[in-house]
Amino acid sequence: MKVLVVEDDPNLGSLWERVLLEAGHEVLQTASETGAARLLETRPFDLVVLDMCINGRDARGISLLATYRNPTCKVVIVSGSSNFSRKALFAMSPAVSAALRKPVDIEDLLEVCHLVSGTDRRLPIQTVDGGGIEFRT
């Protein structure tokens, strides 16, 4: 699976990239909205792991660009803000398949990516309570 990680915290971005690489995925990571747009315009991706707020700015435009450039691409939103309701996160784009709240457990991130991308052979989880993970139903 080809994954784009968009996270402005260098420690988180590197961690998520490393974990996804170790799981056997092709991963590119960027810390800016401009970098994400450039990559989405030039390469196909199966999944975008998107921090909702990049360098203090709302990054919802990236989810729309991901859908436009890669119609089958899925988006996992990661947000540390409670300003966005589940309804608002999923309304950004039909490609938004899951939302995680920071702090994110790395095992949860990996499992969500596999579930959303269809690379997990188990039955999909529709909702996970208490872990800060929300799926489109």
UniProtKB/TrEMBL annotation:
Keywords: Phosphoprotein. GO terms for biological process: phosphorelay signal transduction system. InterPro entries: Bact_response_regulator, CheY-like_superfamily, Sig_transdc_resp-reg_receiver. Residues 2-117 form the Response regulatory domain. It holds the Pfam family Response_reg. The modification 4-aspartylphosphate is found at residue 51. This is Response regulator receiver domain-containing protein.
